[in-house]
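In this section we walk through a basic example: taking a raw amino acid sequence and producing a predicted 3D structure, encoded as C-alpha cells. The instruction is simple. Fold the sequence below.
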Amino acid sequence: MNWTPATLRVSRNPFRCRTSEKSPRNSNHCHTSKTAVFKPCVCHTSEPPRGSTLPTRDLTTRLPNLKFFLFIPLRTLLHLQKSQLLYFQAIPHSLPKTTRGGGTPAQSRFGENALKVPTVALASLQRFGLLYHPSARTLGNRDFDESALQSLVRGGIMKRTCFGLANLFFAIRLGAIFLGTCMAGAAPAQTPPPPLVSPEVRSDRSVTFRFRGPNDKEVAVFVEGAAKPLPMQKDDQGVWSVTTEPLAPDYYGYTIIADGVGLFDPSNHVTKPNFLGRSSVVHVPGPASLSWEAGAAPHGEIHRHFYKSGVVGDDRDFFVYTPPGYDPRGKQTYPVLYLLHGFSDDASAWTAVGRANVILDNLIAQGKARHMLVVMPLGYGAPEVLTVGSGAFRDRALTDRNFDKFREALLSEVIPRVESEYLVNKDRNSRAIAGLSMGGSESLLTGLNTLDKFGWIGAFSSGGITEDFDKEFPAVDSKATEQLHLLWIACGTDDRLIDINRKFRAWLASKNIKHVDIETPGAHTWMVWRRNLTEFSSLLFR
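The resulting C-alpha cell sequence is shown next.
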C-alpha cells in the first residue's frame, strides 16, 4: 500500500479509532477531513507484502540540474531549522521487518507536539526520500505500536543538527567553489610594467636604447653608421640597455637585434620605410643651421601621384615637391630635379628619411638654392629584384633589366606626366637627375646615355654598375659631355662602394670628361646622402 503522510503526531495517550474517521476507499485506513493521522491502532489491517519495500528515492534521478540540487534542499533545510524541527537521516534501501511488542509504554511517552512537520516541508523531504527510514517504513503496519515509534526516534532518524549541518556545509562549499571560479575569471589582469623610454637622447648627445626581453639570451642594437652592433646588458627586470658615445646631430636609423632577429624598437613609433629592412629612427637635434633641421622657413608641399605603368606592368607612385610660393594657376615655370632612391627603399624615402623637402625649404629660404620642383619616382624597372633570393646585382640579366626598364618608365611615363600637370621648363637645361646607391647608378646610366634630356647629373655612392664602363656608357666622350653643366660624383670614404666610384672617376678622367669628385667621411648612410643633396642642389640651375 502506497501513501503519503502529511502530519506525523505522537500523543501521550493512545488515539482511539472512530468509525467516522475511516477512509471512504479503505475502511481500515484512519483519516480526518484535513489530515491523515497515523497511530498505533488495531484498525490498520493493510501491510506490505512480505519481502516488498516501499519506494526509495534515487537522488541522481531527482536532480535535473545543479541549481535545483543546490538550492531546493537548502531552502527546505532552512525552513525546517526555522520551524525548530528535527532532521532526518538518509535512507537505506532495505525494509527490515518489525515485530510486535518491542518496547514498553513508559519508553514511548513524549510531549504532545514533540514532532511536527509542516506540509510543504514534509513534501519536500519526502521528495528527496528523507522519510523512508527503516523504522518509518513500518508505518501502516498493524504490528506497529509505540515501541516501533520509540525505536524510530532512538534509532537516529531524529538527528537535530547532523544532517542539516552536513547539507549546509556541502552547499556552502559548492557555492564557494563557484564564487571562487567567478572571481578568478573576473580578477583584473596583472599590472603591466611601466613603458620604457627608448631611445633617450641625453644632453651630451649620447643615446640610450632600451628593450624589454626577459627571455632573450642576447640583444644588441645596430646604429646607422656604426662599424658593428652594440651589445646590450640586461638588468634584473629583464630590460636590456646600452648607451652610445656622443653622436653628431642628425637622424639615425637603428635596429634592435634580439637573438639574431632584427626588430623595430617597440618603444619608438618613428620608423624608416623600407621594403626589406626594419629600422627605427632617432633624432639627435642640432643647430638650425643644419639643412635638415626644420625651422621657421616657409614650407613647400609634397604631392603623391599614382598611375598604372605600361612599361613595368604594375601600379606605382611618385612624389613631387613644389617649392614655397608655387601656384599651379600662375605663369612662372620651374626647373626640375629627378631624385632617385636606393635599393630596398620606396618612393617616399627621400622625404620620409632623407628630408629632401626640409633641405630644399631651408636652402631656398637662405637663397642657397633656386626654386625648383623635385620629382621622386619609384626606382624599380624590375620589381622582382626585391624578392629575397632573387640574386639582385649578382644576376646580371636581372640587374640590367631593372636599370633599362626604369629608364624607359621615367622617360616615357613619369616625365611626360609631370610636364603635363606642373608648371615646369621642358628643356634639358632645366632638368637634373641624381640619386643614391642604386639610384646613383640609374642617374648615371639614364643621364649620360640621354644627354639630350638632362644637363645636370649627380651620383651619390653609386652601386650596381660593372667596371666595363665603355659598355655601360658607349656614347660618352669629351665632346659629347661638353654640353653637361654638372657631373657630380660623390661617395663616403668608409663606404664599401668607394672602390667602384674611384675607378669610375678615373675612367672619366682618362676620357677628359669634366666632372666633380667628392669624397666625404662616412659610410653607406643617409647621414652622407643628406649632406650630398645639400651641396649638389645648391649648385643646380645656376
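Looking at the output, two observations stand out. Residues 285 and 425 are 37 Å apart (CA to CA). The radius of gyration is 49 Å. In the next section we compare this with other chains.
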